[in-house]
Amino acid sequence: QSALTQPASVSGSPGQSITISCTGTSSDVGSYNLVSWYQQYPGKAPKLIIYEGSERPSGVSNRFSGSKSGNTASLTISGLQAEDEADYYCCSYAGTSTYVFGTGTEVTVL
Amino acid sequence: QVQLVESGGGVAQPGRSLRLSCAASGFTFSSYAMHWVRQAPGKGLEWVAIISSDGSNKYYADSVKGRFSISRDNSKNTVYLQMNSVEPEDTALYYCAREKSADGFDYWGQGTLVTASP
Questions:
Q1: Pairing between β-strand A105-109 and β-strand A9-12 as defined by DSSP bridges
Q2: What is the distance in angstroms between the Cα of B30 and the nearest Cα belonging to chain A?
Q3: Which residue has the higher pLDDT, A97 or B76?
Q4: Rounded distance, CA B108 to CA B88, Å?
Q5: Nearest chain A Cα to B95, which residue?
Q6: What's the rounded Cα separation, in Å, for the pair B37 and B63?
Q7: Which residue does chain B place closest to A57, by CA atoms?
Q8: Cβ–Cβ below 8 Å for A99 and B35
Q9: Separation of alpha carbons A108 and A10, rounded Å
Q10: pLDDT tens-digit readout, A36-83
């Protein structure tokens, strides 16, 4: 149950697109199309923004999109806005009803 | 509206026990698996445990296996986390979260803080 690997920080200017990677193994990300992504503001609970790799819950902006290739999942934020400045975590199903989170990425809007 | 409210956190000496509760409302509690997720101060999220909707299946992270126990009372719409033999590494904000059909946690509580300290 090792944490999935994410870059510690990613930054971009308003209007740009950024991509956050989430690298796991063939036992988690690579084996299941069950990667979710969460946005967390300081002092707040996480919020689900992507599930099943690429699906958005109702109410989540279509500027957020998810994808997967092999053992790596990715979250892309297009048209970056100041309100997107937050921490982002990926999470993958890892078999036998267990889950593993990523190390987290701090997004900075320049 | 869906609400999850955790309670029971506090200071516990290493080796002692603590029981966390999470009261749910606004949805059919008995239809959903529930999870506990924790976050150490300034650190990332760590999945801790899951209990199935009827309470018959429970799974744990390796870091807490054998020390923590998850349970639920569907008549009280409440999920619990019994923490035994707490260690300093268990210091964290503990969230309960509702599972969204085997992928993702769609609702979270605000968390309850556990501090394991002499």
A1: parallel
A2: 18
A3: B76
A4: 24
A5: A45
A6: 12
A7: B106
A8: yes
A9: 6
A10: 999 999 999 999 999 999 999 999 999 999 999 999 999 999 999 999
Percent over 70 (pLDDT), chain B: 99
Chain-chain contact of A1 with B59 (C-beta, under 8 angstroms): no
Token pair 């109410």: residue: A59
User: What are the structure tokens assigned to B12, written together?
Assistant: 């516990």
pLDDT band for position B102 (cuts 50, 70, 90): low
Closest CA to A39 of B20, B100, B104, B48: B104
**pLDDT for position B103:** 79
- Of B35, B106, B110, Cβ closest to residue A57: B106
Best of A2, A52, A55, A97 to disrupt the B interface (most B CBs within 10 Å) is A97
Q: Which of B18, B59, B66, B42 is nearest to A99 (CA)?
A: B59
